[in-house]
Amino acid sequence: MINILSHMKVLISLVNLESYLFKDTISFI
Predict the structure, then answer these.
(1) CA distances in angstroms from 28 to 10, 21, 22, 24, listed in the order given
(2) Which CB contacts under 8 angstroms, 24+ apart, belong to 21-25?
(3) pTM (2 decimals)?
(4) How far, in Å, CA of 8 to CA of 21, rounded?
């Protein structure tokens, strides 16, 4: 169970980072 939670945390942080980079790219262009 703890394993699943930690995996979800990593996935969520990755998605957040991706959307942040995506926004940055759009504002840069």
Answers:
(1) 27, 10, 10, 6
(2) none
(3) 0.56
(4) 20
